[in-house]
Predict the 3D structure of the following.
Amino acid sequence: MLPNANTQAVSLHNLVKRFGDFTAVDRVTLDVGRGEIFGFLGPNGAGKSTTIRILCGLLAPTSGSAKVAGFDVATQSEEIKKRIGYMSQKFSLYDDLSVKENIEFFAGVYGVSPGTFPARLDFVLKMANLEDKVETLTRLLSGGWKQRLALGCAILHEPAILFLDEPTSGVDPIARRSFWELIYQLSETGHTIFVTTHYMDEAEYCHRIALMYGGRTIAVGSPDQLKTSLGDEHLLNVETSDLLKSLALLAGHPGILDVAVFGGGLHVKVADPGSGIAEIRNVLGQAKVQIRTLEQITPSMEDVFVSLIEREEKAAA
């Protein structure tokens, strides 16, 4: 169950942002509850970062409305900035400053009082596990440590709402997983986390997700809800002795809704798992292709996203 899900931390209604003739954000409507980890998932150019910048008071919307912590983004952006933390994929750190000096700088930016600073410094260093790197120059840190430092700087002033814009871009998978552990800790203490990502696996960490495509939200829900949104479509994982030949044989075959390469095998969408498995065995068997794995699986977020985009494109056509 989502913490404080009935109390809205962020609310958007028909939000639109245009740059000339280009519509970057197209009538987005959604609510994010307090303490929720909410993810914006989508490819580059989907409108995720533009929406985040509007919510942070960095861009004015063209039309529609949005509120953050109860304040209007169009008329009360300065009030919003006092109550949020923001972390971008560039980390916004100063490489020629030490870890402590970066924290001191951002404490000044966020108006952390001198009396409060020692406790906040101690909290950030412990939270980010940077206690033994306090005097290290930031440029000497790995991407994962810079990421932790940037998160710590973003929460120095104890914001209720934290916006993370592609925060794991460019860091290794181990650092990404460790970073998400920190996000969970913040959520458990009541922080609302609004995060954008193009990594499909990261969507699994969110309480809810909005899938964005072409500036619009094409689906909103929990990971489990979105995985069951494919309706009558079922997914099979197929691994064979000849991947490309199997792909060519199954693509467009009656009873096969879709087939795509996924890792070292194929993900095959069928209307009925039983008859679909029988048909695949028959088609590949006649072609003397050895089947190593043939099983029904739960769709990944990547499968869900691709299917929803295909639906959008078919509807548009």
